[in-house]
Amino acid sequence: MGRFHRHDEGAAAHSHDYHQHDHDHGDHSGYRSAVQRIDVLESIFAENDMHAAGNREALDRNGIRALNLMSSPGAGKTTVLAATLDALAGEVAVGVIEGDIATDLDAAKLAGRGAQISLLNTGDGFGGECHLDAPMVARALQGLDLPGLHLVVIENVGNLVCPAEFDVGEHAKAMVYSVTEGEDKPLKYPVMFRAVELVLVNKIDLLPYLGVDLGSFIANIREVNPSVTVLPVCASTGEGMDAWIDWLRHFVGKRE
């Protein structure tokens, strides 16, 4: 199921596996190639959405708020999360579902920061999927002691497209967007920017070296999603991170 994705309007779906070839055994001079698009019914997503509702019910039953944190690879999502765990340590009990195709490298970076970590490699029995779906998250939730948590952060697989299309049981979606990715990405890849409530524009310390304008980044984000909250930050230096931590406190309901 993880290979199927909603179209932009969510009315249908398509599969990544649409390239095929036919070998004509009557003609050994070569191969004939064809491209086939497979349309599938919305019921493909019904199972995912059923699991998402179950995940959300389990979280609600334990008074937990869940955030689906997404980004493209290298945007700084894990660095943001490490700084976040340090800031909330002793104040907010956090569980992290660490999603990656392979390795425990990111999970290791988050260890020892006061959070429960449940590692989820999509290469382990999931076919190396480029995103998390609700059944995967349901499995990962079993690795957390839910009654002891206030917040679960689902660190999704690094991908600027697919993760935004799947409800995994979260209460909100947010994303980390690095200035090194270029100011045009919200216009070229609008699905994720439309899906989120908050965008962290990370690595702003590099702006002087990139020859781009932060205002253009933000304007392009707002063109796609006028109501989104945009917070410029630098996770490695801490610049702007207080506003993000305050947003999280309000999201969880633990206000100072």
UniProtKB/TrEMBL annotation:
GO terms for molecular function: GTP binding; GTPase activity; nickel cation binding; zinc ion binding. The keyword Nucleotide-binding applies. One of its GO terms (biological process) is protein maturation. It comes from the Bacteria. The keyword Chaperone does not apply. It holds the Pfam family cobW. Keywords: GTP-binding, Hydrolase, Metal-binding, Nickel, Nucleotide-binding, Zinc. Coiled coil: none annotated. Belongs to the SIMIBI class G3E GTPase family. HypB/HupM subfamily. This is Hydrogenase nickel incorporation protein HypB. It comes from Mycolicibacterium duvalii. The gene is hypB.
